[in-house]
Write a structure and sequence with these properties.
This protein is an alpha/beta fold and 391 residues long. Strands 3-2-1-7-19 form a five-stranded parallel beta sheet, covered by helices on one side. Strands 9-16-10-11-12 form a five-stranded parallel beta sheet. A three-stranded antiparallel beta sheet has the order 4-5-6. Strand 21 and strand 22 form a beta hairpin. It is globular and about 70 Å long. The mean pLDDT is 94. One of its GO terms (molecular function) is oxidoreductase activity.
């Protein structure tokens, strides 16, 4: 009897899950991958687009049927997931029934959650680097600055890639060059968290603050933003203070999409999963990557990062196959991961460790080196080369 496994979302986690499912399921079973466009880029590549080291074309992949042989590709916007009827609605009145489901729909940017931010983005006094074209546009705006202040703002938590705003600050300072080192253009980071990457622990956070200080980048923790005033070019904070800027480089608020909320699996929209198997509260439904709320031993959620989404996609594929009754490996998510923080000048620091450790993640931040920058470049090359059809 033929069964249908549906994967929602063609980001890192979804592509990995779909490819793995096709490898381990019998040819008579359907593997269906649904995505709004099938165009994607690694988050690490977007930071290099921001710096001007990559173009959007160079780092955008668009896998087709040849890149995913045997996987049915459906282009459509997932609008609702009914875990009781085991159906997914997409497009204009289209739906599909599944026997097993992997949800990899990621997180959406929702600038409207911070008053004033949509107009700041529309008028160009603010830019973001979580979408590929926006990162390229922000690069050009930074290039045009001769004097003033760049304010890098984390608008809300959680957000994708916990290192990204601090890496952005380093790369913006690096791009500015003499304009920054002479003080003509200053760079400051503001975040609601007390330290950078708090899930990694105080030692990692303080080390990153010291690295920013050495580059004359200001760090301001425990500063939740309440509004942006586009006319005054200022950010308002919960403590009543205002900080002016000439250019705002913002991590917009992230939100689960309506399709995630429609599952009813998580009160906040993010989907709780078993840390080992990525199983949700509904049998036969698994979730991976940025869509999830995978809680760690210290009560904090696992960071939303591609390195975890890729492993999770593989684990969810194996567990979905086992749910269907096939003799697939009983693979478990390990929580081991690493991320890189670019400092410019071809140097990167590397944070790595065990995020599922108890009583808290055990993470080490290794000193910056050219070798870590090269490792990051190889990670990008491996991902791009895996998908032969590129836009």
């Amino acid at each position: 009897m033929s069964r249908t496994t549906v994967v929602l979302g063609a980001g890192v986690g979804g592509l990995t899950a779909a490819a793995e499912l096709r490898e381990i399921l019998p040819d008579t079973d359907r593997v269906v991958l649904i995505d709004r466009s099938f165009r994607s880029s690694l988050g690490l590549s977007m930071l290099w687009v921001l710096r001007g080291w990559r173009t959007p074309h160079q780092v955008t992949v668009q896998p087709d049927a040849k890149a995913l042989t045997g996987v049915e590709l459906i282009t459509g916007e997932v609008t609702a997931i009914d875990t009781t009827a085991r159906t997914v609605d997409y497009g204009q009145g289209e739906s599909i029934r599944y026997d097993a489901l992997v949800i990899a729909l990621g997180a959406q940017l929702d600038p409207s959650r911070l008053p004033g931010l949509p107009r700041a983005l529309d008028t160009g006094i603010a830019g973001e680097f979580y979408s590929i074209d926006a990162a390229a546009d922000l690069h050009h705006r930074i290039q045009e600055m001769e004097a003033g202040r760049v304010l890098v703002l984390v608008a809300a938590v959680p957000f994708k890639c916990p290192a990204a705003p601090f890496e952005a600050a380093f790369l913006i300072a690096d791009q500015l060059g003499d304009r920054h080192t002479t003080g003509a253009v200053s760079v400051d980071v503001f975040t609601p968290d007390p330290l950078p990457m708090p899930v990694a622990g105080a030692a990692v956070g303080n080390a990153l603050v010291d690295m920013m200080g050495a580059k004359n980048i200001g760090f301001h923790g425990q500063m939740p933003a309440t509004a942006v005033d586009p006319d005054a070019r200022a950010v308002e904070f919960a403590d009543g203070t205002r900080e002016s800027f000439d250019l705002l480089a913002v991590v917009p608020p992230h939100a689960p999409g309506a399709a995630l909320a429609s599952t009813g699996l998580g009160s906040a929209g993010w989907i709780p999963v078993d840390p080992a198997t990525l199983a949700t509260a509904t049998e036969g439904v698994f979730a991976v990557g940025d869509a999830t709320a995978l809680m760690l031993a210290n009560g904090k959620p696992l960071p939303k990062a591609a390195i975890f989404a890729e492993e999770e996609g593989r684990v969810a594929a194996h567990q979905a196959a086992r749910f269907l009754g096939y003799d697939a490996p009983d693979t478990r998510f390990t929580g081991h991961g690493a991320c890189y923080v670019e400092l410019g000048d071809g140097l990167a620091a590397k944070g790595e460790g065990d995020f599922l450790a108890t009583p808290a993640p055990q993470v080490t931040l290794h000193d910056p080196s050219a070798a870590y920058h090269q490792e990051k470049e190889q990670q990008e090359r491996d991902w791009l080369n895996r998908w032969t059809a590129r836009a």
